[in-house]
Amino acid sequence: MKLTNLPINQNDLTDFIKFWSLILDGLYFFSSKKNIDSLEILKNYWNEIVQD
Question: What are the domain boundaries of the chain?
Answer without folding.
Answer: 8-51
